[in-house]
Amino acid sequence: MYGEYVKGFDNAMELVKNMTERIPQFKSIIEEIQKQKICGSLTLQHHMLEPVQRIPRYEMLLKDYLRKLPPGSPDWNDAKKSLEIISTAASHSNSAIRKMENLKKLLEIYEMLGEEEDIVNPSNELIKEGQILKLAARNTSAQERYLFLFNNMLLYCVPRFSLVGSKFTVRTRVGIDGMKIVETHNEEYPHTFQVSGKERTLELQASSEQDKEEWIKALQETIDAFHQRHETFRNAIAKDNDIHSEVSTAELGKRAPRWIRDNEVTMCMKCKESFNALTRRRHHCRACGHVVCWKCSDYKAQLEYDGGKLSKVCKDCYQIISGFTDSEEKKRKGILEIESAEVSGNSVVCSFLQYMEKSKPWQKAWCVIPKQDPLVLYMYGAPQDVRAQATIPLLGYIVDDMLRSADLPHSFKLTQSKSVHSFAADSEELKQKWLKIILLAVTGETPDGPGKHPATLDDDPEPKRKSEC
Question: Domain named FYVE-type: which ranges (predicted)?
Answer without folding.
Answer: 262-322
